[in-house]
Write a structure and sequence with these properties.
With 552 residues, this protein is of the alpha/beta class. It has a 9-stranded mixed beta sheet, sandwiched between helices.
């Protein structure tokens, strides 16, 4: 290529990416401003409760200036404590907290031990203790007010809320798709259970069982959308139409049911009618724009790296590989390697993933050294990916992997954009993905463990199957992840059923896998290096697993 042509094309490419980045930021800021406008009458006060445990909290409440003139701002509604589910954080309850705060309820969102920004380790006993300590601290902070308190828990948080309320008649409990917990007709005195029409079967059965134990009322099976009440109306079960396990904590119908029920149980609370509601749609649009910003931001950073002397395009050595179905080029191999290579040619790529997944599950049933990571489900996932990856590498060993200094810099920049910019921003919406110092030591261990899987996976997808078309490649990716998810579920139910609650976050893990694979494609297109995209996937997974899964 003529040297006078390349700088012109590079400049045009740089300008195009800069325009795309600016447009993405503008599109991100528009819904963000709408969210800020809808919450400008609220206060967001971070803090920490220090007892035997250190529990991070976020208080959401109406500003004094936002109370109607006919209302006394010093007499806020009953304080509420919002408890999230397993491997979630207080970020997952912000949507509900904002809606309730608009009605005058002072909401306290907490990070359970081992979750979010908490430095503690999780156990059911520690979770109950943390909830109790926040309840006591909330009462101490409001000495002139009634001791009555509202505790709202989602999923596992609902079970912890019920356990924490045992023996405390002043606590009103609301469970959103709660995990089952032992109940009696006397405790809790007031109870509202909200589940989704398409909730998990175990959650639906557990909620029906708890309501029957608390009221003595037999419910129909299966439960259809509707509501059932005790004779005193102090206990109620609601099945939301069209809702699933996650959406019971996000949909506006949940907050409306809570407000309606509270007005009946506590008419003295005098809840406000909000002038406007905070829409979930704006948060979804904002998150989508934020995730798409990665593309132009990474391309701009990669173009800057290309301009560094000695690290430009001429320094890259692209990977080479025969297409799927062509035997690997001859090389000096042992008899075992030749035998494995011959057998691997008879196994389809999808069959290789299925075989590798079974091997991983079987080995983990015998020994799991990744338990030392102390992550609820994260250790099993890390070991599963490591063993599956090693099996794939044995079956189909990559050839001619190369990684230049420029490609390595691009990998670090790509991971930095996500981990230091996009992740903390997403933590303000639904899921906690910010850096916590007590978790950093796990990142290199997880990265090196999952690297074999990403080397094999990227090699298969970017080289061996590069000629099957984009649509077929996406179908292969989703099919392979489906097979691995089935093996993962098998491992939890059969081998490590003590951590079965982690299956509740399986959809989020699969969603991250799909998004990460898409980002890996962007990195590969920029570097033309399987090693670079594999390192990117491994580093990204190391960050996600260490930040997302609960510490135990």
């Amino acid at each position: 290529m003529d040297r006078t042509v390349y700088p012109i094309r590079a400049k045009r490419h740089w300008v195009k990416n800069l325009l795309w980045l600016g447009s993405g930021i503008v599109l991100y800021l528009v819904p963000l401003m709408m969210i800020r406008h809808e919450t400008d009458d609220l206060e967001f006060l971070p803090g920490e409760i220090r007892g035997q445990l250190r529990t991070p909290i976020l208080t959401i409440r109406l500003k004094k200036s936002s109370f109607p003139k006919s209302k006394d701002s010093s007499r806020r509604g009953m304080p509420a404590l919002l408890v999230h589910g397993v491997s979630a954080s207080k970020s997952a309850m912000i949507q509900l907290g904002v809606r309730l705060a608009h009605r005058g309820i002072e909401c306290h969102l907490l990070d359970l031990p081992g979750h979010g920004s908490s430095v503690e380790r999780f156990s059911p006993r520690a979770g109950v203790q943390a909830v109790r300590e926040v309840i006591d601290a909330t009462r101490r902070a409001n000495p002139g007010r009634s001791a009555e308190l509202l505790v709202i828990g989602h999923s596992l948080g609902g079970s912890l809320a019920l356990d924490a309320a045992r023996g405390d008649d002043e606590v009103t409990v609301i469970g959103l798709s709660p995990a089952a917990a032992p109940l009696t007709p006397e405790v809790p005195r007031r109870l509202l259970l909200i589940i989704g029409q398409y909730d998990l079967p175990t959650v639906r059965r557990g909620a029906a069982f708890m309501f029957e134990r608390a009221t003595g009322i037999l419910l129909p099976s299966p439960l259809s959308p509707g509501s059932w009440r005790s004779p005193t109306h102090s206990k109620e079960l609601v099945v939301l139409p069209g809702a699933d396990h996650t959406s019971t904590a996000l949909r506006s119908e949940s907050s409306e049911q809570i407000s309606k029920w509270l007005m009946e149980q506590h008419p003295e609370s005098r809840l406000l009618d909000p002038d406007h509601s905070e829409h979930l749609l704006w948060r979804l649009v904002s998150c989508s724009c934020l995730l798409l910003i990665f593309l132009p931001a990474f391309h701009l950073a990669a173009d800057l790296i290309e301009q560094i002397p000695g690290l430009g395009r001429t320094a890259r050595t692209p990977d080479t590989c025969p297409t799927h179905g062509t035997p690997n080029p001859p090389a000096d191999r042992s008899k075992i390697r030749r035998w494995l290579a011959d057998r691997s040619q008879r196994i389809s790529p999808l069959g290789s993933y299925a075989l590798a997944s079974l091997v991983g599950v079987i080995i983990l049933s015998l020994v799991n050294p990744w338990k030392s990571l102390h992550l609820l489900g994260g250790g099993f996932l890390t070991g599963f990916l490591c063993l599956a990856g090693l099996t794939l590498l044995i079956l189909k060993w990559p050839q001619g992997l190369s990684l230049s200094v420029a490609d390595l810099l691009k990998v670090f920049v790509a991971v930095g954009i996500i981990a230091f910019w996009l992740g903390p921003e997403l933590s303000n919406y639904f899921v906690h993905l910010s850096w916590v110092p007590s978790r950093l030591w796990r990142i290199p261990l997880i990265t090196l463990s999952v690297l074999p899987f990403f080397l094999a996976d990227e090699w298969v997808c970017r080289k061996q199957l590069k000629d099957i078309g984009t649509l077929n490649l996406w179908f292969f990716h989703l099919s392979s992840r489906f097979l691995m998810a089935l093996a993962w579920i098998l491992g939890f139910f059969v081998l490590t059923n003590g951590e079965f609650l982690i299956l509740l976050v399986l959809p989020a893990t699969i969603a991250f896998s799909v998004l990460g694979w898409f980002y890996c494609e962007i990195v590969y297109e920029q570097t033309q290096s399987v090693a670079a995209s594999a390192w990117f996937g491994a580093l990204l997974s190391g960050w996600f697993i260490s930040a997302f899964f609960a510490q135990v």
